[in-house]
Amino acid sequence: MEYLLFVAWLVLFAWIITKVKFFTRSGLSQPQLIIVFLLKVMAGIFYGWIGLYYGNLAQMVDTWSFHTNGIAEYRLLYNNPHEYFTNLFRNPYESGIYKFFANSDSYWNDLKGNVLVKILSVFDIFSFGYYYVNVIFYSFITLFGPIAVYRVMADVFPRKKMVILIAIFLIPSFLYWTSGIHKEGLIFTGLGLIVYGIYFGTKEKRFSIKRWLSILTGLLLILVLRNFLIVIIIPALLAWLLANRWPKYGLAIFCSLYLFFGILFFTARYINPRFDFPQAVVNKQQEFVKQRGKSSVPIEQLKPNAFSFLKNTPQAINLSTLRPFPKDVHHILSLAAAIEIDMLLLLFVLFLIWRTDDLHSKNLIYFCVFFSFSLLMAIGFSVNNLGAIVRYRSIIIPLLIIPMMVRINWSKLSQLFSSNIKNKNNITNS
Nearest-CA neighbor of 47 among 33, 66, 69, 22? Predict the structure, then answer.
């Protein structure tokens, strides 16, 4: 039964994606759309298989826990419909609604898991509770995010469409973590919808209802699935909008606004104690330190003051952008992550040496860089588990890789490589 359902839904959705205008207007051909969809499905299946047979490996047990809870929620729909439609909005804690960044006794902390479980319960209506059939539904929904980013970047760099396609769909960690049944795929979908709505709304100088729905849907997904990202993305979006208003001063606007929000980060608690952002980061770090996972590494703990954050900045950069190192490899996933980060760093070196001067939509690139770097810093300051770090940072990899890959002079590199081969052959023949 499961196999028949899987094949039937797979064929149906492979056909649907060739008919959805949002996908077809990307400029990708029907075979290309089907291929990227199948890539996500295969990655989602592999993700589930790893979670099933290596449940404690690199925090992979969560996906099947979500699945089990989704089935329980699906049964609740038939046994107690009133509870099913209302439990998402119930706060079981006395002051849980006010604990926006808390890791326990918080409505917001529970909401991210509850929303994913609720979504899976809807999938279960059509999949009869089969995990790998749900992967197809999840792959379809989370395809909107990458396609949204592709449409934006293809509009900015129309001659680099193939490079953009590779940078989005063939980066292993991004494909893996955003295709498996977890929060990353939906979070990136939210991010993609926001970028898509603002870019084309600004370009066309018209924010239609569809554009606003795209932006608001993206913000809602981020709010409910990883609420601290709201605090990180708002400054980046505000700077982007202001820079679009005064494009000649784009970089100055981003730098000055981030300086302002950086000061506000450390001083907002004096306005209202609930806005103690440094303490929230410290609390988040302490929660991760207490977990002591297999890929956790020792770190110097933060204190809720500016000096401590400044002192720990090199550690944060090291954790979020350079690790895992080869010495951190303990299983196949950490090996893949270590190889990938080395390849991405090599790509960065190529960008520094052989980049072109052709740069379009600078303010979009500034948004990608400032938002991505601030997220990496937030991860580095609060997380000491390498498995979690690789998963959390996966959602911003395309925003960093695409601007690099499209500006690398690949033709010059190809010519240089070809000339080296010819020289070696001549030396060998002589």
Answer: 66
Torsion angle of the four alpha carbons 59, 63, 68, 69, in this order, in degrees rounded to the nearest 10: 90
Tell me the one-letter amino acid at 210.
Answer: K
Is 226 in contact with 365 (CB distance < 8 Å)? no
Under a CB-based contact definition with an 8 Å cutoff, are residues 57 and 69 in contact? Answer: no
Give the confidence band of 107 by pLDDT, cuts at 50, 70, 90: confident
pLDDT of residue 56 exceeding 90, the answer is: no
Give the Cα separation of 140 and 194 in Å (integer).
18
The pLDDT of residue 273 is 83
Structure tokens at 418: 């070809």
**Contact indicator for 295, 374 with CB cutoff of 8 Å:** no
Task: State which H helix or E strand residue 153 sits in.
Answer: helix 144-156
pTM: 0.92
pLDDT bracket for residue 260 (50, 70, 90):
very high
Q: Where are the alpha helices (DSSP H) in 276-385?
A: 277-291, 306-311, 313-317, 332-354, 362-382
Task: Name the 3-class secondary structure at 408.
Answer: strand
Q: Indicate the residue type of 321.
A: T
Beta carbons of 148 and 196 less than 8 angstroms apart: yes
